[in-house]
Amino acid sequence: MYGVGGGGGGFNAPSTTAGRRRNPGDEEEDEEEEGGEGRVLEAWERAYADERSWELLQEDESGLLRPIDTKTLVHAQYRRRLLLRSAAAAAARIQKGLIRYLYIVIDLSRAASEMDYRPSRMAVVAKHAEAFIREFFDQNPLSHVGLVTIKDGIAHRLTEIGGSPESQIKALMGKLECSGDSSLQNALELVHGYLDQVPSYGHKEVLVLYSALNTFDPGDIMETITKCKKSKIRCSVIGLAAEIFICKHLCEETGGSYTVALDESHFKELLLEHAPPPPAIAEYAAANLIKMGFPQRGTEDLISICSCHKKIKSGAEGYICPRCKVNVCELPTECRTCGLTLVSSPHLARSYHHLFPVAPFDEVTPVPNRIQRGGQICFSCQQSLFNPDGQSNLHVRCPKCNQHFCLDCDIYIHESLHNCPGCESQRSITS
Amino acid sequence: MRFDLDGLPVHFPYAAIYPEQHAYMGELKRALDARGHALLEMPTGTGKTAALISLITSYSLANPARPLRLIYCTRTVHEMEKTLAELRLLFAHLPPPAARSLLALGLSSRKNLCVHPQASAAAARDSVDTACRRLTASWVREKAASDPESTPLCEFYETFDRAAAAGDLASFMPPGVYTLADLRALGRERRVCPYFLARQMVKYANIVVYSYQYLLDPKVASIVSREMQKECVVVFDEAHNIDNVCIEALSVSIRKQTLEGAERNLRRISQEIDRFKATDANRLRAEYNRLVDGLAQRGNLPISDAWLANPALPDDILKEAVPGNIRRAEHFLAVLRRLVRFLDGRLDTENVENEMPVSFVASIHSQAGIDQKMLRFCYDRLHSLMMTLEITDTDEFMHIQTICDFATLIGTYTRGFSIIIEPYDERMPDIRDPVIQLSCHDASLAIRPVFDRFETVVITSGTLSPIDLYPRLLNFNPVISRSFTMSLTRDCICPMVLTRGSDQLPVSTKFDMRSDPGVVRNYGRLLLEMASAVPDGIVCFFVSYSYMDGIVNSWHEMGILQDIMQHKLVFIETPDVVETTLALDNYRKACDCGRGAIFFSVARGKVAEGIDFDRHYGRLVIMFGVPFQYTLSRILLARLEYLRETFQIKEGDFLTFDALRQAAQCVGRVIRSKADYGMMIFADKRYSRHDKRSKLPGWILSHLHDAHLNLSTDMALHIAREFLRRMAQPYDKTGSGGKKTLLTEEDLQNMAQDGMEM
């Protein structure tokens, strides 16, 4: 464990003295150092940086302790992420791949048992993979996910590619043990074999959660990478330890993203970045008509064997494929019998918003005025935007309709609602 | 971009400039203004070369009174090509009228330039030279004139010769930048010899890029660099080892094989003499007469054949006639025989002997009857004789040349040298391998003519610390000597001093500790832990081959090596060049394909000097121990003594300086540009001491935090993990948050204005 053990002399010295020890001539250098912007937290500080529990409390007039709200802080972080994302998609209309076929490759080699993430890399990866799968289906209801693990240098397909989050998560949690080496090539070859059969309108993606720092391959991985590139599989890697050249190369070649997690929260953040659909590559631009079925719930008295679990179920528990009348338990999925894509209309609607995202709102700096009457309440929740002491809170404004919103609503509108209430109400007035 | 530097308009080929480049140019300009020498240290990867050439070029464009004459010395052909590529970028950026009149070219040996289909096929450098001479020597060409059927000639050389005679060589070479590949292409296209063309055009070129030897080694310099004018600006790039290059240029060692070879050569020469006596006695007589007139006026020797030159420095050669008793070929041969026999006798000794040149010459005089003056003329006399005898395969006669080299040096210099005779190698006392070493102790001897001859000499490198020692070693007075640090957008190097193993016991390669199994195991554990935490390539440097062999053996026995192999493949440098190249190739392959690899190498070896481990080829470099020189070596002891007596440099100071610059050189391999990142571990408790640490270059020191000075293995591992994660985050090139590391034209204008207002 890293600590003060061993009594290293001068080990705790503040980092600024490091600057002073140098050539006395470099005065401007010293100032730069002391700007403190690049200062790294010491190990013992770091653990508490996230949860400074004592600072979260505040005494009120009557001497009671109450938590101060960290809303603005959280919001600032959120906005930074939002802006970053919208900056990437700066060009107004980017075609997005809405029907995604994603294989999540989880590295369960020896390195995944390392304890630098608590309790272990493997546990952390599994936990967040679960959250990711849910989020993924929430954002991409038309898409499909499969799981692959690497263990002892061999890649296994844990689950078939499918549209149900529950079965995927169950399969993942049952298989959590790690050993042996990892092989990126084997995993890619396996995934390539499966993804090659995917219909042409689907976007083929691989997301590798890679713990190891090397790969033990049976052949030339470069060939596999070219193969993946040729079949237009977008490979992304999230590393848990350090940047590896071959992963970077793989992502660059196939148009994916390569990121390395700093810690658990960063890992979660990076993982969730893969949930919204990526911009489609130009070659996919060809418009395709896809046949889809919109099945209805069966009636109570219809008893049939469901095609997914081979169990007798009443019709109310499942859906009936409109083409072949077979019973399926969950949507969205592909009909086992006739291969028709089965969705419900809300799924389609939920995918739609990615194409027309709500523009990020502008921040309005808090001004201590009461003259600006229009900005007093949040347009969406009708809460006052002012503190009891007359200071206006930090809030945001939609650039299109110029309505003001509070921070909570800002997050709600962008994350869940995907429509600006201000703009929508204007439209209803004009039309 | 174009900007104004203290009133000098500077043309810079890139759109933005690093602040340290700007500062570097400022210092360089001051040195040029003062017409003095400069010593500048700036880390690699900050664009030294671009800054240097663009400032010097801009300087002479702005001052028509000082025409552009730049001699740029590099260490390797690879660096030469890189410099020329930079030059090409710069020339493309210069205003057209200036760019159209400038000529820049690289010069290398025949091996790199020859385009003759047969001659260039030879493998070794000497055999290419020999093959070339067989086709182009003046007597071969005379013979061909009378007998064109049976004597092959080099058509490329013939074209060159005709053009040279007509004086229109320039028509072959319009102004521009010529890399070695360009020269070869030009040679093939115009059917002209690129080597001789380049050698002739050096006189007219504005910028010449070549190797150190062309200026420092008197044997080569007198041929190639004779005609350089005083106004030239001379740049020594990567010059941290310049003192060693200077010393090597004037050092000779003679072994048993050399003497045997020399005997063979002498027999062959005497046969030749007999043959000539029988067929063409006039030649020998003519030579005799010429020698009476003195070697200084050997104007009648064809200049193109000047392939041997005196190993002593030009100013030290006396312009007088060759002593009478070696003028006749047979007499000279007898003198050489006596000399070889004398050396052979000295080589038979059982004891180590250490002598000054004066007493050595005295003993030669008493035992072999050769006086100092005869010794001094040996080399020129041999040269003349071989010319007369029309010997072209000079590589065969290497041995006798070495002997004459030796003789001339001891005949010329009395100070700064010593002769050391060792019957066996200190480290392997059982194997008898006697050697006579004439070792030069004074680096300033070889470089002095350079400093005297040229107005401005710039010595620059990434590691010149401590910067005040170089002027003393080389005995010159720089007007500017400065060390620059690197401006970085992030802390992309992470030096650490590891003093303890995971069991908290100190680690060191100190003599009394190095074989301690605890230390060996701690080093092994360190490497193992690092191999599991660092991706792609790791480079390890050991203090010597024997130490590396020992420790790798112990690791193997302890099973550590097998554990390491689970994480990464292991490659080892050997003294054999081919083997090492192969190992390096495979090492790179293993890094590329993600398997990960470790390269074991030796400080002061080939790899430490010339091979870059940038990007993923070297994410971590571990320096096991302090690479002190072998302190019991007689040569080193003699040199230390000389340094103390002559330059008042303490032994300890010099040893530490030398060890630390080697260490810095080794770890510096890992980072070659600002976008790159890497860690450096100095694994020895002695590095934490101030006297050692302070001798590291400033750019490493500035990143060496106090907290990283006294680490144990597990702490280092933790820091490494953190560092690698931090560095894997997306890299912001321009530098955000106030730390500007790329200056555009506008920024520079603002800077200039700020300066005016202040």
From TrEMBL, chain A:
Record-linked InterPro entries: C1-like_sf, Ssl1-like, TFIIH_C1-like_dom, TFIIH_SSL1/p44, VWF_A, vWFA_dom_sf, Znf_C2H2_type, Znf_RING/FYVE/PHD
GO biological process: DNA-templated transcription; nucleotide-excision repair; regulation of transcription by RNA polymerase II
A cellular component term, taken from the record's GO annotations: transcription factor TFIIH holo complex
Residues in VWFA domain copies: 101-240
Annotated compartments: Nucleus
GO MF: zinc ion binding
Biased composition (Acidic residues): 26-35
Main location group: nucleus
Record keywords: DNA damage, DNA repair, Metal-binding, Nucleus, Transcription, Transcription regulation, Zinc, Zinc-finger
Region annotation (Disordered) ranges: 1-40
Gly residues: compositionally biased ranges: 1-11
Family: Belongs to the GTF2H2 family.
Name by which UniProt lists this protein: General transcription factor IIH subunit
Source taxonomy: Eukaryota, Viridiplantae, Streptophyta, Embryophyta, Tracheophyta
From TrEMBL, chain B:
InterPro entries: ATP-dep_Helicase_C, DinG/Rad3-like, HBB, Helic_SF1/SF2_ATP-bd_DinG/Rad3, Helicase-like_DEXD_c2, P-loop_NTPase, RAD3-like_helicase_DEAD, Rad3/Chl1-like
Family note: Belongs to the helicase family. RAD3/XPD subfamily.
Pfam families: DEAD_2, HBB, Helicase_C_2
Ranges where the Helicase ATP-binding domain occurs: 7-288
NCBIfam families, alphabetized: rad3
Cofactor(s) needed for function: [4Fe-4S] cluster
Keyword Nucleus assigned: yes
Record-level GO BP terms: nucleotide-excision repair; positive regulation of mitotic recombination; transcription by RNA polymerase II
Protein name according to UniProt: DNA 5'-3' helicase
Principal location class: nucleus
GO function terms (MF aspect): 4 iron, 4 sulfur cluster binding; 5'-3' DNA helicase activity; ATP binding; damaged DNA binding; hydrolase activity, acting on acid anhydrides, in phosphorus-containing anhydrides; metal ion binding
Subcellular location: Nucleus
Keyword presence, DNA-binding: yes
Gene Ontology terms: cellular component: nucleus
CDD domains: SF2_C_XPD
Catalytic activity entry: ATP + H2O = ADP + phosphate + H(+)
EC number in record: 5.6.2.3
The organism of origin for this protein: Miscanthus lutarioriparius
Enzyme's top EC category: isomerase
Domain of life: Eukaryota
Keyword vocabulary terms for this entry: 4Fe-4S, ATP-binding, DNA damage, DNA repair, DNA-binding, Helicase, Hydrolase, Iron, Iron-sulfur, Isomerase, Metal-binding, Nucleotide-binding, Nucleus
